[in-house]
Amino acid sequence: MKPEVVTVAIAILYQDNQFLMQLRDNISGIVYPGHWGLFGGHLELGETPEIALRRELLEEIGYAPPKAELFGYYNDEEVVRHVYQARLTVPLDRLVLQEGWDMALVTTEDIRRGSCYSHKAEQERPLGHPHQQILLDFIASGSSKIFSP
User: Fold this and answer.
1) Under a CB-based contact definition with an 8 Å cutoff, are residues 36 and 10 in contact?
2) What percent of the chain clears pLDDT 90, i.e. is strictly above it?
3) Alpha helices, DSSP H, located in 62-128
4) Which among 145, 149, 34, 35 has a CA at the least distance from the CA of 85?
5) Three-class SS of residue 23?
6) For 24-127, where are the E strands, in sequence order?
């Protein structure tokens, strides 16, 4: 039997040439446990991707950007991802991590390497493959110029 396709809205949030990422909890039963990923989540019944993104970001970090633009769609057999981009307009210390193990501003070098150090985990942790690919595409698209000084 084919698994049910899940629809999510996730955000590429950037600041000072870095990207905000969440280190997912390292527990069984979740997708990509212990991996870095983009913030966001599932659409609830009747929600648009934009509304779901705002709700998820407020739930996860207590922040939603004033404006988020659609970057693209990333679909596979299990997940339809609506990917948005926005500038992170507050300092990292103003965010309150309410979901996940850690959060960090990740460099393009970390993204290319496919891992980032977590101070809370006290170790290098891998990026989730789809999230790494989305960020590599974002960087390659030239969209990253919008966050350069």
Assistant:
1) no
2) 87
3) 108-113
4) 145
5) strand
6) 36-37, 39-42, 69-75, 79-87, 102-106, 115-118, 123-126
**Do 117 and 45 contact (CB within 8 A), yes or no?**
no
- Mean of pLDDT values over 121-126: 97
Q: Report the CATH number of the 6-143 domain.
A: 3.90.79.10
Displacement of CA 88 from its chain's centroid (Å): 12
Report the percent of the chain where pLDDT is more than 70. Answer: 93
Q: What is the pTM of this model?
A: 0.92
Tokens describing residue 19? 């990207």
Distance CA 52, CA 56 (A): 6
DSSP conformation class of 134: H
Domain ranges, ordered by start, for the chain:
6-143
